[in-house]
Design a protein that fits this description.
The complex is a heterodimer of chains A (301) and B (605).
Chain A (H helix, E strand, L loop, with lengths): L12 E5 L6 E5 L5 E4 L11 H8 L6 E4 L4 H4 L2 H5 L8 E4 L16 H23 L4 E3 L5 E4 L2 E5 L21 E5 L2 E5 L5 H4 L13 E3 L22 E4 L17 H5 L6 E3 L5 H6 L7 E2 L2 H8 L1
Parallel strand pairs in A: 3-4, 4-5, 5-6, 10-11, 11-12, 12-13
Antiparallel strand pairs in A: 1-2, 2-3, 7-8, 8-9, 9-10, 13-14
Chain B lengths: L1 H8 L6 H6 L5 H14 L3 E4 L13 H16 L4 E4 L22 H4 L2 H4 L3 H6 L11 H13 L1 H9 L4 H11 L4 H11 L7 H7 L5 H11 E4 L2 E4 L1 H7 L9 H18 L5 H16 L3 H7 L3 H13 L4 H14 L4 H14 L3 H14 L4 H13 L3 H15 L8 H17 L3 H9 L3 H6 L1 H18 L23 E2 L5 E14 L3 E9 L7 E8 H7 L13 E8 L7 E6 L21 H4 L4
Parallel strand pairs in B: 1-2
Antiparallel strand pairs in B: 3-4, 5-6, 6-7, 6-9, 7-8, 9-10
Helix pairs in contact in B: 3-4, 8-9, 8-13, 10-11, 11-14, 15-16, 16-17, 16-18, 18-19, 18-20, 19-20, 20-21, 21-22, 22-23, 22-24, 24-25, 24-27, 25-27
The chains are: A alpha/beta (301), B alpha+beta (605).
């Protein structure tokens, strides 16, 4: 899809990957500088699409952000750090909340062991980068800012008060990112839950965004009215579904996840099919499901 | 040092002995020095069972390597006449074989009253035992000791051809009345060489008179220079017992030899130097840095001290300090270089310094497989997979012979340990590539490699299909049959399994259990995956094992749906998998997993 595409200067280009498990967002600023938020490797093939994108465009990101320490956002992050980052690059990470270590090789739950190992690999790579390039150290928290050329990067979360606290869910600590380029606002919602959207600095206007990477795979628990765009704004919402392990996000039932999102915007773009049935019934939507609210309801009936 | 002492006593070594005391001179150089004196002195060297020196000696692996270096030099390089006992070492040329004549019987020895003291009558009573014919003096001693402690063991020693020392020691240790003697035997076996009556009195103070007699007249030799235990008796007692098993005794022996060193130090004799060696050996084994600092140590002893501090005391920073001293004395000491890296790695500190020392060890000894393996694992654990792959390729080029090998130890050390590290990091692609490089015959002979292959496959399935059964069952086609559910149930087996669910508990509340489910119908090409909720009451009613109050999220269960052949009497049965660790043959975890990102992972803990 990407090969042969030209990304023009003077544009803000955003690529969202999400094959059904994991998500990763690559941003190319108008002056050719790159930001990558989170990382994924495709299950089975273990391809890292963000890394491939960087290779195609012979780019090395100036900013790397791991929004939180869940494997579906961290897998392959070490690959990105190994991508010969510029000396001035910054690598951002939220303080993790790792449970006590058990040996993954002896753990009876291979899935949990695999996920935890991959998060550890990402955190080790970040720490190693911080050790060798102290200037790259970027501990993420709300109100932190960084420039990406002419684009300003604002962190909307996590709240300072949560950092260092016990019994805080990892999604609560995830770093939602606001990109501001002139009049254009882009919100990358990470997996931030609704209660934390409520705590985002009220002086920051979010309803005038042009693009929103929907938080937490569109789940009901991460939606918030502050993100409702103004009528007719033409805001684009895009989400990376979760289709692994028998759990499907967004849910397609009435009054659940996707249905609720479609009350806020006319359409939601998805990086893959949110479940197998949708994919097989509508092949043209298998990789890019554009689901107008009314048609979705009709289709579901 | 013993060779040097002999040479010096014979006037064949003079000023050279000073070099042996110089800890800045390498063992290789010292060995060459001794060999040249042996050759110039036209010496005959007697090696008593050289095949028992290296790996089978009482020293650690590192010391064993050094002992082998010296023995190999004596056997292979020195232009001297060699006489050795036991099997001919591989390194020697065709040897002339001699058999010393046996005494026709041990009668003369057994009747020597001065030899046996208060046990003279017991010894004399053994004369008529036909088993004594052809016995060595040591075997006769053991036989007399056995007669002194009991008829049963005496008969065993007479009849049995198995290791008599081992049999007697086992008997003593298991005997309620004689266990003290067995314990003192083991303690004295940790003492190297000759020791004085004061130490014997001290260690044997808890023995009654009879046991004390057995010890002194049967188990020990009263030499001109003091008491000593025959090397064979020591070897049997030390098989599962060394300095680290009795730290208090090891510390006591440190003081004992230190006091001898103190007495002899001013003489400059070889005996003084040997006492110093023994002091350093025990001081290192007991982690007595005070004595090590006072006496000074050779590099090998410092290396041992560092190892003990790391392995036994878990004082990794102290180990680093000691290895740094060793490396400053011998710039070529790859062992010290590696373990500076290893201990810093273990601490999760100074990564640049750790990596530099890992690399230095490889520069000094590029063929050492473990040095290679640890560096690659270190880089992977630091998230530096590109560098790790580069080092991996370099290691293959360096340590694998061009025409291949089926050396199991090599593959386990390199392929096995690196794969274990990668699997712990969820890095399946790299791990898969490594496992593909292991020859099939090595896989067949190595439980470790087979275990790692099974773990790798389990992770691959977890990555693509998800996890519905415990890791030890997660293999290709795991869903073709349940592990816990029976094909038929009911008193007459009338209920047949129609369908079953492999489940992982995802959430539990007061009313419901949420399950992640693989739904298997026999004969179907694959399971159907999904989630379901079960009422707590149903869960408990179906369960033949624990009810839900004893379970937690992450446990695995199987639910079977049974009915008669005509679909009547639908019945559900639930079985709970045990929650046991897997991977018994995998390399053990050697260091905390989070040590290289403590700041990030530990901030909330």
């Amino acid at each position: 899809v990407i090969a042969g595409t030209t990304l023009a200067d003077g544009h803000l280009s955003i690529v969202v990957f999400g094959p059904g498990y994991g998500e990763s967002v690559a941003v190319r600023g108008p002056d050719g500088r790159w930001l990558v938020v989170d990382s994924l490797r495709e299950p089975g093939s273990e391809r890292n699409p963000a890394l491939e994108l960087l290779r195609i465009f012979e780019a090395a990101p100036e900013l790397l952000v791991l929004t939180h320490d869940h494997e579906d956002h961290a897998n392959g992050f070490a690959d990105l750090i190994q991508r010969q980052l510029p000396a001035t690059s910054r690598v951002g990470c939220v303080p993790a909340n790792m449970p006590p270590s058990e040996d993954p090789l002896t753990h009876p739950d291979a899935g949990a062991a695999l996920r935890r190992g991959r998060v550890r690999l990402a955190l080790s790579a970040i720490q190693a980068r911080w050790d060798t390039e102290p200037g790259s150290r970027w501990l993420l928290k709300a109100d932190e800012q960084a420039p990406l050329g002419s684009v300003d990067i604002h962190l909307l979360s996590p709240r300072d008060a949560l950092i260092g606290k016990a019994r805080v869910a990892r999604n609560q600590l995830s770093a939602a990112v606001l990109l501001i380029w002139g009049e254009v606002k882009v919100v990358l919602g990470a997996d931030l839950p609704s209660a934390e959207w409520n705590r985002v600095d009220e002086s920051i206007e979010l309803s005038d965004h042009r693009l929103f990477k929907v938080a937490h795979h569109g789940s009901r628990r991460s939606q918030h009215r502050r993100l409702t765009p103004a009528a007719g704004s033409g805001a684009v919402w895009i989400l990376a579904p979760w289709t692994k392990a028998g759990r499907h996000l967004p849910r397609l039932a009435d009054n659940e996840d996707l249905d609720l999102l479609l009350r806020e915007v006319d359409r939601v773009e998805m990086t893959s099919s949110p479940d197998a049935e949708l994919g097989s019934a509508c092949p043209s939507c298998a990789c890019r499901a554009i689901a107008p609210r009314r048609s979705l309801h009709l289709w579901r009936r | 040092m013993q060779l040097a002492a002999g040479l010096k006593a014979a006037g064949k070594m003079n000023g050279e002995s000073d070099e042996l005391r110089d800890r800045s001179i390498s063992l290789e150089r010292k060995t060459d020095l001794v060999l040249s004196c042996l050759e110039a002195g036209n010496a005959v060297v007697l090696l008593d069972e050289p095949d028992r020196w290296g790996a089978r000696s009482d020293t650690t692996g590192h010391f064993a390597e050094r002992a082998e270096l010296v023995v190999d030099a004596l056997l292979g390089e020195a232009e001297v006449t060699r006489v050795f006992t036991g099997p001919a070492p591989v390194a020697t040329r065709a040897a002339k074989k001699c058999k010393l004549p046996d005494e026709a019987s041990g009668e003369r020895f057994l009747k020597d009253e001065e030899q046996w003291g208060p046990l003279a009558k017991v010894a004399a009573s053994c004369v008529n035992d036909p088993a004594t014919h052809g016995m060595t003096a040591l075997e006769l001693r053991l036989l007399v000791a056995a007669h002194a402690v009991g008829a049963e063991i005496a008969q065993e020693l007479s009849m049995s051809r198995r290791d008599r020392a081992d049999a007697l020691l086992s008997f003593l240790r298991s005997s309620r009345r004689r266990s003290a003697l067995g314990a003192v035997w083991r303690q004295l076996a940790t003492v190297r060489g000759v020791f004085g009556a004061d130490l014997l009195d001290e260690l044997g103070s808890g023995l009654d008179e009879a046991d004390s007699d057995i010890l002194r007249f049967c188990l020990l030799l009263d030499t001109r220079d003091g008491w000593m235990m025959h090397e064979n008796l020591r070897a049997d007692a030390r098989r599962n017992y060394g300095p680290r098993d009795d730290p208090k005794l090891t510390s006591r022996l440190t003081d004992y030899y230190d006091s001898i060193t103190e007495q002899l130090d001013s003489t400059g004799s070889a005996a003084a130097l040997i006492a110093l060696m023994d002091t350093a050996y025990y001081a290192a084994s007991a982690c007595r840095t005070d004595v090590v600092e006072k006496r000074g140590c050779f590099v090998e002893q410092l290396d041992l001290l560092g190892k003990m501090l790391s392995l036994e005391e878990q004082d990794y920073q102290a180990a680093v300090d000691v290895f740094e001293l060793a490396l400053s004395l011998d710039n070529d000491d790859d062992y010290a270089a590696h373990y500076i890296g290893f201990n810093l790695d273990r601490l999760g500190r100074a990564p640049d310094k750790a990596e530099a020392h890992y690399r230095l060890a490889i520069d000094l000894n590029a063929q050492h497989v473990w040095w290679r393996s640890r560096l690659i694992s270190f880089l992977a654990e630091r998230g530096q997979l590109t560098q790790a792959r580069r080092e991996w390729n370099d290691a293959l080029d360096s340590v694998l012979p061009p025409d291949g090998t089926s050396d199991v130890a090599l593959y386990e050390t390199l392929h096995g340990w690196v794969t274990a590290t990668l699997l712990r990091l969820g890095e399946l692609r790299f791990a898969r590539a490594i496992m593909h490089g292991v020859p099939e015959e090595v896989v067949e002979r190595s439980p470790m490699i087979r275990e790692l292959q099974a773990r790798l496959r389990a992770f691959e399935i977890a990555d693509t299909e998800g996890v519905y059964v415990p890791a030890n069952l997660l293999r290709d086609g795991w869903w073709k049959a349940p592990a816990l559910l029976q094909a038929r149930i009911g008193t007459d087996g009338s209920l047949r399994l129609r369908r079953w669910l492999a489940c992982r508990i995802e959430a539990i509340d007061d009313d419901h259990v949420e399950l992640r489910v693989a739904d298997v119908t026999p004969g179907a090409p694959a399971p159907r995956y999904g989630r379901t909720r079960v009422d707590v009451a149903d869960f408990n009613r179906w369960s033949r094992d624990d009810d839900i109050s004893a379970l937690s999220v992450g446990r695995f269960v199987e639910i079977g749906l049974y009915s008669t052949e005509d679909g009547q009497q639908p019945t559900r049965l639930l079985r709970v998998h045990t929650h046991e660790p897997v991977g018994a043959d995998a390399p053990v975890l050697a260091a905390p997993l989070d040590r290289w990102h403590q700041e990030l992972a530990g901030s909330l803990s």
